[in-house]
Write a structure and sequence with these properties.
The complex is a heterodimer of chains A (about 625) and B (about 80). By secondary structure, chain A is an alpha/beta fold. Chain A contains 29 helices and 19 strands. Chain B is about 60% helix and about 0% strand. Chain B is globular, with a radius of gyration of 12 Å. The chains are: A alpha/beta (about 625), B mainly alpha (about 80). At the A-B interface, helix 5 and helix 16 of A face helix 1 and helix 2 of B.
């Protein structure tokens, strides 16, 4: 965002999506305008009520056929009234580009529907089946008169209910390939035993929790079976207010009218990944989105980001984006800003959580955002329809919605306090599982980015090393690092001088030897904490200190931290009274990168035998100097 | 019963029942409209309750035998300023 647009935002335009009235939409629909669907979706986003649902569905249906809509057949197996929810679900789905055909099983015949291979369920060939049953119906003994149960009875009931679900899921899978969403069981808002519930170890609430745990396990054992955390949904909105007792007793509708939309939106969170309506990348703005303020006006020191309000709001946005990245969703930047200044902030501002390497593509400059989004999609080799767009400026959002209607535009509230929540609420960012491929994709882009950064930054190696701001922590072996130390000796191949493999027990034995030392090195840099990436093992014999093991994880090869570690070794050997530091290089197929390590640091070649080279350094007049760009703690 | 409330109810009923507004007037009853079955009756009641922030008793819901009657019951609730 730039200043001129900031002006626009505050003065002139209420974006059209907020201005479109029902009457205006009816006209658009009647004229068959291509814009009608977009305005209808915006209308739904604003109203989201039972009253609006019927209008929105009717209007979308009047627009049919719409070739871009994804068709999806849903069958709902239920033990309560869901009919009034269906228009809300269909309105939400239409707004997301999904045309739902919904069928509902008769009341409380879900068991017959599942078990009978000729049932309506299987004949209707659904794409998705929702099994929505209530605790009171499937486990009545747990819901009512709980106080009379013995712990044996309790265990029997839990196992019985879990077995029922197992049977249903297995039979279902035998007959049907559709995705299956299973609602888990709701806890009673007020337990039967009152205060006694909280005093007991085998309470009513725990029994339901036990069943829900079984359901999660069942889902993990069957492909395409997903658990909808119905109890979590109810709890988020408040157990007491979730149900309307009058509706429950007179209509078998256990959901208050105001909460019907919440269940529909929860269903939508599943429908997006199931129908493939997902965003693979989130393209984010910088000013007033990733940080508070405008970089071009406030300067790097004036922008708001960090642990204190208001910077904390933007830190929360960054944390939320990082969560998405852990889900395999790629991040990219589209910002109207000075590219050098913006990259500098991303790379060096001390309070930023997101760093350049978290992003897979950058378009920072003065071009239109729609152009930036097209270019980013091309660079990442994904469709524009798999991009989500995050920008605080409603004018930019409206433009993208109009010019690139396939892009998921994340609707942000006016105040940044709601930004993170709005991101989390976006259903196109949900995943039902994360494949290793998904995660590797983000990693692959990262590596590519990092290599590019290395190249572009190499005006001189020293300058690059300085910009990394590396901090090295060298600590003796301890219970917290011993398993990592052993792991590194076992796994490190390239920068490993002797390639001696040690188990954790062997490391412990060396550590307890008074004539030996084991150290671990942690490396942090401007991008992140690399963790423990170096190990050195020293053995002392009078005036000679022998380097038994010296290794570096490939994550930090070529960054001069090995020199810092060797410098520390010299110091340590002197403390122990050694006058000679000796080391050897044992060549393997893979450790050529370490071959010149000792001669490079001023060690004299001592002997060569069986391919092994020995080196030594006289500590009385020789030394290894730690590079000035590394801080050792 | 205000005209405004009646018009609101007509619009909602047309949306929920999936018919044109012109097909519904103050005298319309479930018997005259094929789409007005017990399920759509529930949907209509819920839509009105949610839209106006009121809650009808089970007796009132059974009593809603025409569009005019619904508007009357709704008006009464709105005038009493009492949603429960």
């Amino acid at each position: 965002m730039v200043a001129s647009q900031d002006f626009l935002r505050h003065s002139v335009i209420a974006p059209p999506r907020e201005a479109t009235s029902r009457e205006a939409i009816e006209e658009l629909v009647a004229s068959g305008s291509a814009e009608a669907a977009r305005h209808l979706a915006a209308y739904w986003q604003q109203h989201k009520s039972p009253a609006a649902a019927h209008f929105v569905v009717g209007a979308f249906e009047a627009l049919l056929p719409q070739p871009h809509l994804i068709e999806c057949r849903v069958m709902i197996l239920r033990s309560f009234t869901v009919e009034p929810l269906i228009p809300l679900l269909r309105a939400a789905a239409f707004s997301a580009g999904i045309r739902l055909h919904v069928q509902i099983s008769d009341f409380n015949v879900y068991v017959q529907e599942i078990l009978d291979p000729e049932s309506k369920l299987y004949r209707s060939k659904p794409d998705l089946v929702i099994l929505a049953v209530q605790t009171a119906d499937v486990a009545p003994q747990l819901w009512r008169s709980y106080g009379g149960l013995t712990s044996e009875q309790r265990a029997e009931i839990i196992a019985g209910v879990a077995d029922q679900f197992r049977n249903w899921i297995e039979v279902f899978r035998d007959h049907c390939e559709a995705d299956l969403i299973v609602h888990n069981l709701q806890l009673p808002a007020v337990p039967s035993r009152g205060l006694l519930e909280a005093q007991s170890v085998d309470g009513q609430q725990d029994a339901v929790v036990d069943i829900n745990r079984c359901l999660r396990r069942l889902a993990s054992e069957h492909s395409g079976v997903h658990i909808l955390d119905y109890d979590g949904l109810v709890a988020r909105h408040g157990r007491v207010g979730w149900s309307d007792e009058t509706k429950r007793f007179t209509m078998s509708l256990p959901i208050a009218p105001a909460h019907m939309v919440d269940l529909c939106e929860e269903w939508m969170r599943f429908l997006h990944p199931i129908t493939g309506k997902i965003a693979k990348a989130v393209v984010v703005d910088l000013d007033n989105t990733l940080w508070g303020g405008i970089l071009g006006e406030d300067g790097a020191s004036g922008i708001q980001i960090g642990p204190e309000y208001p910077g904390a709001l933007y830190l929360e946005v960054q944390r939320t984006l990082l969560d998405l990245r852990d889900r395999g969703i790629v991040l990219a930047v589209a910002s109207k800003n000075d590219p050098q200044e913006a990259m500098e902030v991303l790379a060096t501002h001390p309070d930023m959580l997101l760093r350049p390497y978290h992003f897979s593509a950058f378009r920072i400059g003065w071009q239109e955002k729609s152009q930036s989004l097209r270019e980013i999609a091309a660079e990442l080799n994904i469709g524009v329809d798999t991009l989500a767009f995050l920008d605080d400026n409603p004018v930019e959002r409206e433009r993208i919605a109009a010019e690139l209607p396939a892009v998921t535009v994340i609707d942000l509230p006016g105040e940044p306090v709601g930004f993170a929540q709005a991101i989390r609420a976006c259903p196109a960012l949900e995943r039902l599982r994360v494949s290793s491929e998904d995660l590797q994709r983000a990693q692959y882009y990262d590596d590519q980015k990092r290599r590019q950064e290395l190249q572009s930054a190499s005006r001189s190696p020293e300058e690059f090393f300085s910009s990394l701001k590396q901090v090295v922590e060298i600590r003796p072996v301890s219970p917290s690092n011993i398993s990592r130390i052993a792991q590194l000796t076992q796994k490190t191949n390239q920068f490993n001088l002797t390639t001696r493999r040690y188990t954790e027990q062997q490391i412990a034995a060396i550590a307890s030897d008074t004539e030996a030392d084991v150290f671990a090195m942690r490396v942090k840099d401007v991008y992140n904490d690399n963790g423990i990436v170096g190990v050195v093992i020293l053995r002392y014999d009078d005036a000679i200190c022998e380097i038994d093991t010296f290794l570096l994880s490939c994550r930090v090869i070529g960054r001069t931290v090995e020199t810092a570690l060797l410098s520390f070794v010299c110091e340590r050997a002197r403390e122990r009274g050694a006058t000679t530091l000796s080391g050897r290089f044992v060549p393997t197929k893979k450790n050529a990168p370490a071959a010149d390590f000792y001669p490079r640091h001023g060690f004299a070649a001592a002997a060569k035998r069986d391919g092994e080279s020995s080196y030594s350094l006289d500590l009385r007049d020789g030394d290894v100097i730690c590079p000035e760009w590394i801080r050792v703690l | 019963m205000s005209t405004q409330v009646l018009e609101h109810v007509r619009t909602l009923a047309a949306d929920v029942l999936g018919v044109r507004r012109s097909e519904i007037d103050v005298n319309s009853t479930p018997r005259q409209l094929d789409n007005w079955d017990s399920i759509s009756h529930v949907s209509l009641v819920l839509a009105i309750e949610e839209q106006f922030g009121v809650a009808f008793t089970p007796e009132e819901i059974t009593d809603m035998e025409s569009i005019g009657r619904i508007a009357e019951l709704l008006s009464r609730k709105l005038n009493n300023g009492n949603s429960h």
